[in-house]
Amino acid sequence: MAKIYPFEAVRPSEEALQNFSSKSYKSYTKKELKDSLKKNPDTFLSIITLKKDTSLAVDKSQRYEMVRQKYEQFIDSKILIKDSIAAFYIYETTQDNGDQFSGIMATASVEDYNTNVIKKHEATIAKREHTFKTYLNTVRFNAAPVLLTYPDHPTLEAQIEAAKLNSKKINTWATKNETHKLWSVDHPKDIFDIQNSFQNIPSLYIADGHHRSASSALLAREKRQLLKLLKTTHLIAF
Question: Taking the alpha carbons of 195, 90, 96, 28 in that order, is the dihedral positive or negative?
Fold first, then answer.
């Protein structure tokens, strides 16, 4: 049985929404990157590009810390806002040719990853797992979500459509050749129904994000071990 949970998202404010998203920073030439940041400094690109900016006279761990600091600056200046209520988020994109795709943004279970409810089809490289883990431990977010897929589930599809109708918030923005929509699903019945349907799905499958998943599981394991150690030390001290 697959387990998913709502969460309090950090997302762009209404004022920043239209210009916040960007392509992967890896797809920009140096000139394109410079021009884009000069034209619009209040984009996610301004945060994530610091991760790989080797022109900075600092090491990798310091660049990770700079990413975290820039992210916090965006929150402090209200470019990014944090929702006060845990929710699922339904994301839908429509391309100019009419093709439409949608999915649920949610938190998945590390336990499901460790017990193979979340199934993998690619081997991961230990060095990259540890690099991603170090990054995640410092920055506390990944640049892109892990993409999980599951078998067709008509009941769940109907619940997703019903949740859209019950949603109190909706964001819409456009990028080249696509229109994007985001619904915040915080109605208790909608959350329960969607969670219950996922519990009837035996397996989820990683479509993209094997190293992000592995590094998250690795970090969670280390955090649990540290917590056990601290509890043991506390008991011995007394």
Answer: negative
